[in-house]
Each structure stands twice: as C-alpha cells, then as structure tokens.
C-alpha cells in the first residue's frame, strides 16, 4: 500500500524547478506510459504531478521515469507516496548488464522487463 500522508523524509536535498518539465512514467516493459510533470528531483528520487490517474497497467513498484525529452536518460523507479495528483518516486539502483544477462535463460532476448526486481 502506498503511504498517502507522509512526513518529508528526503534523504538528499532536492532541486525544485521554477517551471516543471514534461516527462513520462513508463512501464518496465516499455509498452505503456503516463504523461507527468517533474516538479523536483534529487540524486535519490523525484516528485511528479500527473493529470488523472497513473495507468493501472504500469507496475508502480518497478517503472521508469524519463528525464530527457528524447528519452535517453531515464531512471528505474518505484512509487513511495501519492497525494492527489502528486507522487514521490524513489530511484532504484541499476542492475549491471552482466548480472541480467547471466540470469536470463539461454536464447532469450534481453528486454527492459528483465530489470524487474
């Protein structure tokens, strides 16, 4: 269950933007996404705002937040809290490619969904 009433427990200082920037919350397999605005960010997470609801088919415990317009920078994330249209995501550590490739069955192509925790 996601904590909806939570005291500010930030591990690292955040940078708040004068103008939030457009972004997307993307399913770990890349098949679905929800538009959002990044309100602030730190080394360990981000606060975003969405209009409406997060696509229920996106696993909020293992998704990506896109941090650049062209999608080249994204962070594996999990939802920590939600309060109305605002959400707090914790950035998860990346899984080294070697660990992922050695854990997958032989002959199976590597997919973004292989990063599931």
UniProtKB/TrEMBL annotation:
Top-level taxon of the source organism: Bacteria
Molecular function terms from GO: cyclic-di-GMP binding
Stored SUPFAM superfamilies: PilZ domain-like
Pfam family, one: PilZ
Domain annotation PilZ: ranges: 14-93
Alphabetized InterPro entries for the sequence: PilZ_domain
Gene3D superfamilies linked to this entry: predicted glycosyltransferase like domains
Stated name of the protein: PilZ domain-containing protein
Organism: Candidatus Afipia apatlaquensis
């Amino acid at each position: 269950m996601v904590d909806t009433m939570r005291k500010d427990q930030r591990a690292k200082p955040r940078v708040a933007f004068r103008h939030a920037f457009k972004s997307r919350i993307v399913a770990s397999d890349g098949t679905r996404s929800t538009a959002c605005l990044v309100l602030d960010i730190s080394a360990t997470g981000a606060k975003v705002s969405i209009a409406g609801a997060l696509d229920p088919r996106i696993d909020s415990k293992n998704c990506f937040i896109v941090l650049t317009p062209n999608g080249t920078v994204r962070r594996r994330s999990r939802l920590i809290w939600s309060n109305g249209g605002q959400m707090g995501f914790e950035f998860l550590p990346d899984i080294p490619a070697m660990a992922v490739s050695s854990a997958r069955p032989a002959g199976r192509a590597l997919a973004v969904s292989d990063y599931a925790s």
